[in-house]
Write a structure and sequence with these properties.
Elements lengths: L2 E5 L2 E3 L5 E8 L7 E7 L6 E6 L5 E3 L7 E6 L4 E6 L8 E8 L8 E2 L3 E5 L2
Parallel strand pairs: 2-11
Antiparallel strand pairs: 1-3, 3-8, 4-5, 4-9, 5-6, 7-8, 9-10, 9-11
Length: 118
């Protein structure tokens, strides 16, 4: 059974940095699209950044130039380096492994809280 597990959330000040990490297991990591999503209180879950198996990267407009998605297929990890954090980045961040074929299931992590505040 596949799973992904996030780590690295916490409290940061505005302008600060945090790095989230996601470790995948139980599935062929290298063929999955890996991504980070977030959900703020009262809001819908939204895409933050994704990186396909072929290396194509997508960022939400709100994080472009501030966040970097880093994928390491040798370690089965995908990290999210978050710089220049803003209070509006406060949310629960989720890692997702998205299957690239209909027979491949998706996997979501349990989420990790990121709070940006003075």
């Amino acid at each position: 059974q596949g799973r992904v597990v996030e780590s690295g959330g916490g409290l940061a000040q505005p302008g600060g940095s945090l790095r989230l990490s996601c470790a995948g297991s139980g599935f062929i990591f290298s063929i999955y699209e890996m991504g980070w999503y977030r959900q703020a209180p009262g809001g819908q879950r939204e895409l933050v950044a994704t990186k396909t198996a072929g290396g194509m990267i997508t960022y939400a407009d709100s994080v472009k130039g501030r966040f970097i998605i880093i994928r390491d297929n040798a370690k089965n990890t995908v990290d999210l380096q978050m710089n220049s954090l803003k209070p509006e980045d406060t949310a629960v961040y989720y890692c997702k492994a998205e299957g690239t074929a209909t027979h491949l299931p998706d996997y979501w992590g349990q989420g990790t809280q990121v709070t940006v505040s003075l």
